[in-house]
Design a protein that fits this description.
Main location: membrane
Protein name: Sulfate exporter family transporter
Helix content: over 70%
Largest sheet: none
Number of strands: 0
Order of helices and strands: HHHHHHHHHHHHHHH
Number of helices: 15
Membrane topology: Multi-pass membrane protein
Organism: Rohdeia mirabilis
Distance between the termini: 37 Å
Strand content: under 5%
Number of domains: 1
Pfam families: Cons_hypoth698
Structural class: mainly alpha
């Protein structure tokens, strides 16, 4: 890993080529793996580990990062078709105070750790927002507001992806060890795991109720991107007189479509059976999305992060996870 004095690299530039002799076989092998995951769904962490193994043996395809995020959003929208709109709205309202509290804790701890570890300002803000709100989506939304360098964006996304992978393995085991109910476990996943992909992947191990609670709570939490980025833009304008903060983000389209799918099925009860079929397809698709995320995580990208940045992300995540667990247990 690099020293803290080195500039942040662009992790999005790291793409592992297929080992010599396997280039022609890679599409066939990856296609077979995807087909197998659709026919025989496996736990989320197993799909992610399979992707990591595939990246190590076959290289990381150029489409894996973008493709996994696109598929994830489609699957989340599909999950909305299996939910009642009233449940979605109640989850957002009930979780407001908890989300505000954990967000405040994350911002305060992130600022403190960044100062102690001497992590550059851009990377620290992006990692903190990615941990506090919704992983890669928050990073992507805040980056233009900060006018962040590609290297800082890449490092922040790399750290979030790495910790997401850890969450898929650790959270189901800890949820069982702590004896959390389905409701408590789903809430904990939504509050303490970065990206929506890993939230739903980890929550699925707790059953349908945990998955439903985790999904709606996490998507409601994602809406905090808007006020946080607005405040960030104002702060930048005041810090740098004569300049304006970057453009404010829009509400992510997949969140709008998720709510729209839930509303359509709720308002037209005859669509409920079809909605359950669509939601089932979404749950199957999440397995493939997690596999694609594993494919996008390369050893070269992980080696590019320095220990200070990793310590910031890990320390912040542990504190946030502990606070969230105390709130829901």
């Amino acid at each position: 890993m690099r020293d803290a004095a080195s500039p942040s690299p662009d992790l999005t530039a790291h793409r592992s080529p297929a080992p010599r002799g396997l280039g022609a076989l890679r599409p066939v092998l990856l296609g077979a793996a995807v087909a197998a995951l659709l026919i025989w769904p496996v736990p989320g962490f197993a799909a992610l580990l399979a992707g990591l193994v595939g990246a190590a043996l076959l290289g990381s395809p150029s489409w894996s990062a973008r493709g996994s995020q696109t598929l994830l959003k489609v699957c989340v929208v599909a999950l909305g078709a299996g939910l009642d709109l009233g449940v979605v709205l109640r989850a957002g309202a009930d979780g407001f105070s908890t989300a505000a509290l954990t967000l405040g804790v994350a911002l305060a701890v992130g600022a403190l750790l960044a100062k102690v570890l001497r992590v550059d300002r851009e990377t620290a803000i992006l990692v903190t927002l990615g941990t506090a709100i919704c992983g890669g989506s928050a990073i992507a939304a805040a980056a233009p507001v900060l006018r962040a360098r590609p290297g800082s964006i890449g490092v922040a996304i790399g750290i979030v992806f790495l910790l997401n992978a850890v969450a898929l393995i650790v959270f189901p085991a800890l949820g069982a060890a702590f004896g959390l109910s389905a409701e408590s476990y789903g809430l904990w996943c939504a509050l303490a795991i970065h990206d929506t992909s890993s939230v739903v992947g980890a929550a699925a191990s707790g059953g349908p109720e945990a998955l439903e609670i985790a999904t709606v709570t996490k998507l409601a939490r994602a809406l905090w991107i808007l006020p946080v980025c607005a405040v960030l833009s104002i702060a930048i304008a005041r810090r740098e007189p004569g300049t304006k903060g970057g453009r404010l983000p829009r509400v992510p389209l997949f969140i709008v479509l998720f709510v729209g799918a839930a509303a359509l099925v709720s308002l037209v009860p005859a669509l409920a059976p079809a909605g359950q079929v669509v939601a089932g397809a979404g749950r199957h698709g999440l397995t493939v999305a997690l596999f694609a995320i594993g494919l996008s995580i390369t050893p070269a990208a992980l080696r590019s992060m320095n220990w200070r940045q990793l310590a910031l992300g890990l320390g912040l995540w542990i504190v946030l996870g502990a606070v969230a667990l105390a709130l829901v247990a």
